[in-house]
Design brief:
CATH class of the largest domain: Alpha Beta
Helix content: 25-40%
Strand order of the largest sheet: 8-7-6-5-4-3-2-9
Largest sheet: 8 strands, parallel
Shape: elongated
CATH topology of the largest domain: TIM Barrel
Number of domains: 2
Number of strands: 18
CATH architecture of the largest domain: Alpha-Beta Barrel
Structural class: alpha/beta
Radius of gyration: 24 Å
Number of helices: 12
Distance between the termini: 18 Å
Length: about 375
Amino acid sequence: MPNSILEINKKALAKNITYIKTLLDEGTIISSVLKGNAYGHGICIMVPLLQELGINHFAVFSSLEAKQVFEKAKGDFSIMIMGDISEEHASWVLENNIEFYVFNIQRLDYMVQLAKTMNRKARVHLEIETGMNRTGFNQDEWKNLADTLLLNNEHLGIQGICTHYAGAESISNYLRVKNQRQIFKKAIKFFKKKGIKPERIHASCSAAVLSFPKDNYDMVRVGILQYGLWPSRENFISHITQKHVHKDPLKPILSWKSYVMDIKEVPKGQYIGYGNSYLAEQDMTIASVPIGYGYGYSRSLSNQGRVIINNQRYGVTGIVNMNMLLIDITSDPTIKINDEVILIGKQGDLEITVSSFGNMTDQLNYEVLSRIDKDIPRIIN
């Protein structure tokens, strides 16, 4: 018996993808973002499910993640690496027609020379720096980039031109993103005049799909929305207000479940767990659950996290350990060893949401999910 499992709800995923498609123009491609082990949901389990729903373009951060997608994908599909390519994987990337971002001349030159040696084409997406100030070609580098692309045209496939908006999930970044959009349009125009015509133009992440729908172009990179969560509370409220929707149109696809490993009676006046953060002010019954910060359940949830057992909500008591957390079950003498414990998800009318973790620990949805241990079994329900 594993210490916990993650259940992935296939029907909820289908519902989310269907809804996302209603936000896009016909013909706009969804590139499913699977970085961070598919935001904690598991690359290996997500790829087949997404392909069943007609998603065949996948975006990852690294060449290692690209290999994981490649092993699971079937038929006609595309993989796009947005970040790291290890030197040992570079030949594999070219051999298997993996698409990848270029954001500096060094990467472009290296991959072009390797492509020439292998007699292959490097399938590149030109990342434009528009104001994120992270990766991408600055405006003063555009001419050199264009010259390099034209000079090596025989060994290059220009799959896309792209950028990333800095904070599209918040109205406080509106002017910054507005400026980014203008610079990106200028870049598109510049390269078009040079005779460089990418197959796809893409700028929108999940937040931008919601906030700047006119900039969805030919493809959008959808991450958090497909998993049934929102980039921010602000995004959610703004969207349902604009769309006149009365309930959340998305459904979280992940549930995290463990079990009661042990039950112990603790007399009044005794400390519980490490240190002295929790003192029993009455006789208490404490359940231990074999999950802790080593599996992604944040130590910040000490003395404030919540779980569901037998359709009732219970509080985390004491400090969350590396491999264990303790729950105060004094109010319910019927709880027994091996009873199911909901860490994230629903049981009866109660629910522990991913966002509730963020409310208690100041973690983003993205952070909570991506920190869940990769070795916890993922199953489909």
